[in-house]
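Re: [help] complex structure
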Amino acid sequence: MNLESLQRIDSRWIFLAFLLAVAIPIVNPIGLPLKISDNTKKVYEAVERIPDGGVVVLTPDFNYDNKGELQPMMEAFLRHLFLKNVKVVSVSYYGAASPLLMEEAMKSVGLEAYGKKYGVDFVNLGYLAGDETAVAAFGANVHALVKVDYYGTSISQLPIMERLRTAKDIDLEISLSAGMNYPELYLRQWQTTYGTKVTGGSVGLIYAPLIPYISSGQLLGYLPSMRGTAEYELLSRRPASAIVGMDSQSLVHLVFIVAIVICNIGVLGSYLKSRRGGAKI
Amino acid sequence: MTIYDVLVSLIASGLVLMALSFLYRENSWFTFAEQIVVGGLAGYGTAIGIRQVYYQGLTPIAQGMSWYILAIILGVLLFMGFFKRLAWWVRVPTAVLIGTGIGLNMRAGIETQITAQLIDTVRSISTPSLATNVNNLIVIIGVCCVIMFFFFSTETKGALMPVSRVGRYFLMVALGSSFAYAVMGRTSLVIARFQDLLSYPNYYTILIAALLILYDVLRHRKAL
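Output below.
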């Protein structure tokens, strides 16, 4: 067999293998085992430790392009938070579409199902432009920066906002981020300045550079993409879409490893051929 | 599920399949989906921008906070870039944006991103747990070697060479880990789309897409 030909496989075959590895476990779940990491346990415990009646700020800093990774995570956090007696304030500094995604999450989770009321237990403040400036201003004086919620209701009419004046009032900040700078931004402007506890989760793309912040204890754990969400769903005993997706995730990774091995055998074939022909690569 | 929900669901899954059709080959369905995304996001972004100006800028002015006019003026000056003769005015709001950004970032940035990280590098290698000791030693060696890799004041030769090389290997491992996380993340996006596509009534659109691709394959075979 000519090993060199392995480098010339039509990429569409790899796409097909990839699609089958994604689709088959969705139609027919395999139920591969999933181990809960210490990191996920840290996040779960951070939520569990919120004091009774505490205030949580949830910042969904992502758009529709990252919905697949972060929407199930947001819903997992909301389900867990609504089981507790805490006040949840949602505000976004990135991703103008995130208030819409929060609306979708609320439809899926359902405030009433948990006996919660909009304006009393939960509020959607929408999107605030200004990045670091807006985060700093929010931390210093929430009421000076925010005048209305996402639906145009004055925040003076929302009882939940009486509890939140500065970042000192935040018992836990949950950052759901699609951009590397956002968790850092909350660490700079809220955690370092006011001592606010920060946790949350991010898309896989930006996760690795955030690990040093978990190691140093600045982030109280941080969930990586679908895997983190699946572990969180398992830990909080509320299985949803992320756990179902993990079978596909494992199979796809297997396809990738096989593809990498095959391609490298192809490269090795070229190398051996050139050695036999006396030419150097 | 209402008829409205079914319709919205079918349109969404149809657009997803149009975007995915690029994997087969470039086609007008893909271009159509691409244009819808660009147009939709531009429109939504503009609407959100106008809303921000109204609630964060104009409403406070109407409530008597007249100093907000300064912010509006600075915002308007950003648009002067569209006029050649007035373009230099853009420097004023840009200077304010950069100055404020750097000031805010530096206020806590040094403590968050440098001091706290340096403190975390000072680790004990004499804990009761051997695994922890090994991990801590790896962190200490890794940080020192990678910093050495980015030390440009002297030529990397002699005793510095192996240290710098070890630093490069640590960087490669870090980049590999980043890449693997990126792959996992991107795969998650595809899985989430397929969870939607394989649910009712969206799977009907897959059938239509498959028939269209089959028709195209057969048409091309005939042409050959």
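Residues 181 and 281 of chain A are 42 Å apart (CA to CA).
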